[in-house]
Amino acid sequence: MSVSDVKKVTETKIGKSIDTLKTNLAKIRTGRAHTGILDHIQVDYYGSPVPVNQVANITLFDARTINVQPFEKKMGSTIEKAIRDSDLGLNPQSFGESIRVPTPALTEERRRDLNKVVKNEGEDAKIAVRNLRREANDQLKKLVKDKSISEDDERRGQDDVQKLTDKGVAEIDRLIAQKEAEILTV
């Protein structure tokens, strides 16, 4: 393994950490309805748990209502129950063959709570990125110990890994600020 290999691996892992953060932030609902908040809900489909978007068409009915159209009529009650039992606090209503999921307006207190959740998600992502930096630096030290690279190469490699870490943390901060602004807009 070389210094460039360590940098490439670290860069891809930091990218995956940021992608995970984006996925987690998409689950946190804001005042507006969006179809992504139902993505992690699992529905029992003939004995196996399946994401709701694989058994139904999910669209926006209006700014505050999500419309769920099951592919099979008999799945309607199962989907409705799964949405109701989820941790999102949503109350779906059946309208014939489709299910409408109104998203209630957020109170000021709930917005503050969501901001705390967003900050915790961001902090978890930063911790993950810092752990990746530590792993990369350990790999570089091991390469020096094995005499695969020189100490100068190790120093340059550590500087490059630090730059990747700083870039990742800056991206995380940007995503967190963007989500907080989204939550606070009424």
UniProtKB/TrEMBL annotation:
Claim: Protein biosynthesis is one of the keywords in the record: yes
Gene3D superfamilies cross-referenced by the UniProt entry: 3.30.1360.40, Ribosome-recycling factor
Pfam families per the UniProt record, alphabetical: RRF (PF01765)
Record InterPro entries: Ribosome_recyc_fac (IPR002661), Ribosome_recyc_fac_dom (IPR023584), RRF_sf (IPR036191)
Key words of the record: Coiled coil, Cytoplasm, Protein biosynthesis
Coiled coil regions, renumbered to chain: 115-153
Main subcellular location: cytoplasm
Function: Responsible for the release of ribosomes from messenger RNA at the termination of protein biosynthesis. May increase the efficiency of translation by recycling ribosomes from one round of translation to another.
NCBIfam families on file: frr
Stated name of the protein: Ribosome-recycling factor
